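Researcher: Let's walk through a ligand-bound prediction step by step. First, I give you the protein sequence. Second, the SMILES string for zinc ion. Third, you return the three-dimensional complex as structure tokens. Ready?
Model: Ready.
Researcher: Here are steps one and two:
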Amino acid sequence: MITEEQYQKAKSLVDQYEEQRSKELVENLRCIGCKKPVEPMDGLLAAPTELERSAWDGGTVALVRFGYGSRLHDGDAYYVALCDGCMLAAAGQGIIIQSSSTTLL
Ligand SMILES: [Zn+2]
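Model: Step three, the predicted complex:
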């Protein structure tokens, strides 16, 4: 059993770690197509392990997993940033597949 003070001290350390880790991940996110930064909307950043749930200004971040058949290791996962312009261009060229009944613009 830990005391309330020990709990608060440990929680503070975890919060500081999460904040630092979040900044490291966000600074490195660039569109996979044009390399422009894809930045989080102010104050809406999800946990560093759930970046696909955040709101992104002018784009999105997706979690991509590689499985059996890939030359990457089975189960490898990456956060991939895409800007709206590159996504719409790819859709217009028919090189991406749209999911379900949602539409792009
Ligand atoms: Zn782009």
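Researcher: And what stands out?
Model: Strands lie at 39-40, 56-57, 59-65, 77-83. Residues 4-92 form one domain.
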